[in-house]
Amino acid sequence: MNHMFSAIKNSVAAIVIALAVTSCDDRLDIIPAGQSTLDKTTDLEGLVNQLYTLGSLDDLGYITGDQAVKNIANQLTKTNTLTYAQLTGDESVDRKALTENSSRYKIMYDYIYKFNIVEAKVYGSNGDDNLKRQLVAEARILRAYFHLLLVNIFAGQYDEATAYKTGGISYNDNINTLEEKTKLNLDKVYEKVLGDCTDEVIADLKQQPTGLVYRFAADFGYAVRARVLFQMKRYDEALSYANKALAINNNIEDRRYLAETGKLNLGYDSPNNYMFLSSVAPIIAMGDLVNKIITPDIAALMDDNDYMLKYARQNASTPAWDPVRGKSQAFDGAYTFRPMGYMINSWGLRAESMIYVAAESLIRLGRIRDGLEMIDNVRKLRIENASMFADRASSLDEEGAMTLLMDAKRVEFIGTFETFFDMKRWNSEDKYRRDIIHNYGELGTFSITPESELWIFPFPASATSINKSLTHNY
């Protein structure tokens, strides 16, 4: 694996200077002597073979009530910060004025630009034609996925009846930096996302897992399309594509070993990952959950026999989930996660992602037992002697089954984007919408309503000052 990282870094280093000249225009052929001209297919391959890092997503967890923050008593005294607004639901905080820049926004669009370079340049490069088709397919799938992430952070939830008039984001699909990338409404954004992850595009990917951390196969292609359709609430189609992804890769992380060893073991190259995307470079070997504060609400949803809660250890004397101590730090019932090296796929997709997409879709389509059985396939590898949800199926309607799914899914996807996206989608339905209650004990109780503006992030001023079409979506 070290050889692979070395190769990736060397490849990226070879093109960094070449890419720098594209910041002003799209004349990619004007490259100083001695630098890569990106005229070889293998040079362009480096643009889709990178150490993708998309930045922290703690703020999403603050809003959903899954995560709190260190020194929370002190944070609550700073009433004009983004973190304060997210922790308390205070919509009077001027988030636009506080968002001069957004590393998340910039990073994702920078990656998208590189994917566009691949599509624009690869067929004119020197190399294998099969590899060219594969690289274009990878670039388009990644472009679709990154736009999906962006639109669900910086815009509202998709609704078929109103998407034509609901503001979205710009869809960047070319390398002309002189062209203003006009903000589109949600219907057009999703139309373009789906256009980039079609069956024809997926057919040009490798059809079996690559075994490489940052390269993907058709499992991820199908998973991206499934996740898009799922967010659009087209559950029958989402189920079909989730099943296609699972037919290629249905590996589930198995935590039963913790009862024997107590030592967490999840690498970024775990076979359950379709495409690994983290907040920081996993080569640092820390993992996205290190020292995160997990709220009492989430801790209460964890089964007492959860393998991680019951058996995982930081060391001989300290459990992995360590109660937070000190009123200045947090509040009763909160936990912090301490072990390093447990690599959750915070921004990416994995087999469990598709299992939960399929499970909810089945429940929505009236196949309650089938949906609960899929969740049980994960839970039996998470909870020692787990009771099976499917055994309750005969006594449950859709809403009862969804309650089980929603609680289990929040635990399964701690520290990822999933809960934030799910809650936006669930909040669009009367039967599943709920206020998010942030109970900080003696420090106070706060709430975020389904209608809150906090579910939509402001565009950074560094973008709106240049692109006048980027009016805020709240």
Describe this structure in words.
This protein is an alpha+beta fold. Helices cover 43% and strands 8% of the residues. Strands 1-5-9-8 form a 4-stranded antiparallel beta sheet. A two-stranded antiparallel ribbon has the order 2-3. A hairpin with a 5-residue loop joins strand 11 and strand 12 (445-448). Helix 8 packs parallel to helix 11 and helix 11 (218-231) packs antiparallel against helix 12. Mean pLDDT is 90; it is low at 1-36.
List keywords for this structure.
474 residues; 4-stranded antiparallel beta sheet; two-stranded antiparallel ribbon; globular; disordered N terminus
List the helices and strands and how they pair.
Elements: H1 2-20, H2 41-45, H3 58-64, E1 67-68, H4 72-75, H5 82-88, H6 95-98, H7 103-121, H8 129-154, E2 167-170, E3 183-185, H9 186-196, H10 199-203, H11 218-231, H12 235-248, H13 258-261, E4 273-275, E5 292-294, H14 296-301, H15 307-311, E6 313-315, E7 318-319, E8 321-323, E9 335-337, E10 349-350, H16 351-364, H17 368-379, H18 398-412, H19 418-426, E11 436-439, E12 445-448, H20 461-464
Antiparallel strand pairs: 1-5, 2-3, 4-10, 5-9, 6-7, 8-9, 11-12
Helix pairs in contact: 3-5, 7-8, 8-9, 8-11, 11-12, 11-16, 12-16, 16-17, 16-18, 17-18
